[in-house]
């Protein structure tokens, strides 16, 4: 939107956690960043006061309070006309405070936070979601969950898995569940619209940095499975690695590799379990830009657990004509097997507790070995589907929404 002439600011509320290389890669230089670390002396003082209060027994973060004040100041100082947030509006979220104190309209893009709460049977977010002017769902699945408030039941096993995943990786949603207020206290009145994620095409400069396969121990004839994401339970790394190991056993004459792009506790566990004894599995750690390694792959994997929005990594695999095997979960079917279009991969059947069926995952992987024509056809489908998720289309949809809200 900045490139279309609008004035856009980015408020970075997790500056101490953000990969600065990734921010530099994806954020336009036309977008100024507002963050605590842009004021080093103030930021340092706030951290020192935060530490002192913690030692004195304070049960709140002074630094987070200051961050909220910075957001309020920025909205007033820069005369912001609309705030677009990517964290859900729940009782204790920063944007809920903004809605209570200022009259600026707030639009929330839900990347799966509300869907997770719904699967946990928790609708306490509804009155806070209603403080916004619109909720943008990144998939039709997420939009349908929101519109049919209270109508969908999920298994207790799934809720146990969800509680564990949210505690590890989704703090705001986890805190909401911990408060224990599950009842629908008000109808959801905020408009819910679907806008698919947009992804910029990889630049020629990035593609020029793709290493040769042999640099990573991959032969030209190897069939390469690839997976990228946080190294957490939700992403299904253990399911992917276990299926790949079984695939190696079942196909001793087929040379294969598994390229793992990411870091986190699940990947640490896998490394420990393998003990460096499986050269077919290659760990490259976190990558600033996925397009540096994705072109080395033949097949993408995403056997996610519990909940997903609309994963950007599937779109990024598609850019290189790489089909993806992914969980039949959340908005994933809308991008793997879209209606009235050739598929861009295969869907893995799910178990009642919200985890991928191991046999289904293995069968999907085996199919691409047994049927190279299917692999090629799904690769062509992937390229066609990719065109639906370009950044210009996404930006125009948001611009139209913001214009309607401000009218």
TrEMBL record:
Keywords linked to the UniProt accession: Glycosyltransferase, Transferase
One Pfam family it belongs to: Glyco_trans_1_4
MF annotations from Gene Ontology: glycosyltransferase activity
Residue intervals of the Glycosyltransferase subfamily 4-like N-terminal domain: 5-150
UniProt key word Nucleotide-binding: no
InterPro entries for the chain: Glyco_trans_4-like_N (IPR028098)
Keyword flag Transferase: yes
PANTHER family: D-INOSITOL 3-PHOSPHATE GLYCOSYLTRANSFERASE, GLYCOSYLTRANSFERASE
Protein name: Glycosyltransferase involved in cell wall bisynthesis
Source species of the chain: Hymenobacter actinosclerus
């Amino acid at each position: 939107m900045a490139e279309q002439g609008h004035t856009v600011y980015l408020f970075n509320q997790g500056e101490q956690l953000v990969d600065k290389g990734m921010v530099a890669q994806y954020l336009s230089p036309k977008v100024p960043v507002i963050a605590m670390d842009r004021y080093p002396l103030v930021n340092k003082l706030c951290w020192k006061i935060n530490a002192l209060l913690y030692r004195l027994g304070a049960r709140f973060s002074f630094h987070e309070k200051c961050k909220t004040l910075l957001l309020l100041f920025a909205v007033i100082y820069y005369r912001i006309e609309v705030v677009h947030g990517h964290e859900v509006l729940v009782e204790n979220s920063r944007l809920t405070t903004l809605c209570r104190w200022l009259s600026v309209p707030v639009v929330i893009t839900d990347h799966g936070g509300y869907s997770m709460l719904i699967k946990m049977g928790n609708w306490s977010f509804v009155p806070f979601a209603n403080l916004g002017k619109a909720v943008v769902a990144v998939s039709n699945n997420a939009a349908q969950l929101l519109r049919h408030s209270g109508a969908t039941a999920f298994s207790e096993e799934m809720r146990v898995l969800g509680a564990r995943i949210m505690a590890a990786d989704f703090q705001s949603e986890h805190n909401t569940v911990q408060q224990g207020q599950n009842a629908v206290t008000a109808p959801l009145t905020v408009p819910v619209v679907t806008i698919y994620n947009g992804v910029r095409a990889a630049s020629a400069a990035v593609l020029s940095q793709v290493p040769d396969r042999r640099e990573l121990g991959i032969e030209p004839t190897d069939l390469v499975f690839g997976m990228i994401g946080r190294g957490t339970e939700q992403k299904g790394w253990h399911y992917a690695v276990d299926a790949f190991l079984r695939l190696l056993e079942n196909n001793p004459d087929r040379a294969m590799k598994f390229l793992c792009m990411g870091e986190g506790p699940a990947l640490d566990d896998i490394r420990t379990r393998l003990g460096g004894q499986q050269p077919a599995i290659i760990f490259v750690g976190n990558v600033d830009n996925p397009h540096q390694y994705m072109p080395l792959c033949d097949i993408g994997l995403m056997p996610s657990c519990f909940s997903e929005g609309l994963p950007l990594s599937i779109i990024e695999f598609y850019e290189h004509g790489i089909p993806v095997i992914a969980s039949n979960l959340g908005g994933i079917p809308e991008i793997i097997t879209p209606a009235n279009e050739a598929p861009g991969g295969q869907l893995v059947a799910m178990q009642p507790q919200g985890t991928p069926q191991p046999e289904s995952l293995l069968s999907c992987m085996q199919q691409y070995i047994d049927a190279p024509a299917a692999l090629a056809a799904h690769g062509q489908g992937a390229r066609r589907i990719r065109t639906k998720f370009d950044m210009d289309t996404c930006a125009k949809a948001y611009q139209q929404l913001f214009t309607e809200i401000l009218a």
